[in-house]
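Example record

The entry below shows one chain as it appears in the dataset: sequence first, then structure tokens.
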Amino acid sequence: MLLFIIGAIVRPSFIAPNSVKSVLVVASFVGFVATGQAFVILIGGIDLSVPWVLNASAILLVTSSLGQDDRAIQAVLLCLGLGLLVGLINGLGIVFLSVPAVVMTLGVNGIMQGLTLGLSKGFTCRSCSANSPPVVSSAVGGNLLGIPADLYIWFGIVLLVTFVLGFTSFGRKVYAVGNNTRASYLAGVNVNFVTVALYMLSGLFAAFTGIALVGYSGSPSLGIGDPYLFQSIAAVVIGGVSILGGRGNYLGVVAGSISLVALISVLQIMNIPDYGRSILYGVVVILILLLYGREERET
């Protein structure tokens, strides 16, 4: 709210309905990626493979559908399957090979980048110039009762994730693993299964975001996923999810996503350059992590 007030002071039109709507639409894409990131951070993990899973999914959507509606369902399922597969590889490597999450997911991100560039011939393949199928664009970029369609999708995800984390045994296992892995194992929780499942969900949401971004913008581009690594982690941390795992909820992540995009928008209307915004991202995240660290030491 404070950011919207500051934005209104700098530029009164910042709080106009269309401006607020634009902030929420941009925040929804951050929120999609942050959903998967929140799952793995809740168990003390992290997913650095998000950028190129997202990018690969975006390119795969147009190259497999060729912009045709009759191929849209298969293309979307293929993209989501890719996300699940990458998440499975991440999870198996972390669980059974004992590779640290940072190393495993960063390595997989590099592999995905190489595969994407190689298979698309540096994004110069003939099918790379195809656009999103119209049905996907309508599902993401359309309007219903004056509200952008992707906000309905985000609202549905909010309800689903909040229910899963707050009212199911799987959600309780996630928090248990995040709080104490060994105690969870001794209590009968299948820690390996929970860990692999959460990394698969993270891959799924990264791939979904690639689909949503292409559906909204019409076509993919190289590097489309790069901004979402830092933003997804920042949204989760700003939203109150402990980087050490075991604490936080998805409503906080939603608030964190909106706050982050509102902050970016305010900085943009204040004509602060990209490098300045990057510095402020870093400062905000470090300050919050310091506050968390202090809180942990006091408890």
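Notes for this example: Strands lie at 143-144, 147-148. The mean pLDDT is 88.
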